[in-house]
Amino acid sequence: MRTDTILLPTRDRRIEAFRMSEPAELPAVAAGPFNRVAYSAAHVVADPLADIDPTLGCAIDWDATMRHRERLWDLGFGIAEAMDTAQRGMGLDWPTSRELIRRSITAARIRNAPIACGAGTDHLAATPDTTIEEVIGAYEEQVGDIEGLGGRVILMASRALAFVARSPDDYARVYGRILSQTREKVILHWLGAMFDPALAGYWGHRAIDDAMETCLAIIADHAHKIDGIKISLLDKKREIAMRRRLPAGVSMYTGDDFDFPELIAGDGEGHSQALLGIFDGIAPVASQALSRLADGDREAYFRLMDPTIPLSRHIFRSPTRFYKTGLVFLAWLNGWQDHFTMVAGQESVRSLVHLADLFRLADKARALVDPDLARCRMRLYLETRGVTG
Predict the structure, then answer these.
(1) What is the pTM of this model?
(2) Which of 82, 129, 210, 220 has the maximal Cβ count within 10 Å?
């Protein structure tokens, strides 16, 4: 077999030879400043040697986790810390998140690098007796911890609020209280139910358009305390419609991992900034593309970005909440970590065929930093699943 070929399983249960693309030259540092704000939500690296029950405990390899953030900063990205990409609410608890935030803020301060950190209510286990005031108190605790460390806040959507709220007025009450207290402008985060089913009906409405009206009203009432809003609805038309209605000075941060290149590039009426999980996996390619966009070369930008769309749509396919597995697998293939182990055992939630397709798409997207290493590691993984040759 050719050295640039690997045997991969297919969806119809066959094993076929896949010939890899010619290696691409990918940067380790950004070619220059971007003309878009670009945050990468970053994954955490689990400690594979920790003797814990992964369903009950959380063990992080702090050195490897911080090296990954240094890599993203080098490529020109800000870090969106302790977000859902870091398995927040899916294995990463608040005490560990707080330590992650502390370490990342310290590292960012040393190099004057951009960082914003997720504040939520995930340490509050909501019950039918939980009150709105308790939800506010949970938000206040996390916001206070982050701001006390000198960090900037991303106000995450709250499962507890979604469980407790009885009307849009409850959302207005909670967000109004928190925003009245923050020291600096925050980024709001509207995470759709496809990312977290517990957030269905957020902003007090099951219908997305009605929810958007409530969200826009809250933003209008507190625009002086809001830098922007990230929406993760995987619906570019709604994102554009909302972007056009935001108050002056409030930015749209795309969280659309399906159509992000178009949304970032923008149109004659504006563009979205970026706060994306997919950047964690395609950072070198995305850094190249954003540098070209800053140079005014939209053609080169799309030429680099467009091949990443099928990869991103595959990684974020339903059930979307398991996208982290694809990102960590890609990080392992690229040599950005030494193992494919995840917090809470989440390495097991995507199929072998899914990960084989991810490998094919990553190759076509030129997102494999070292194709020889990626091929070697893919073969090792296949052998553990009984695919040899």
Answers:
(1) 0.97
(2) 82
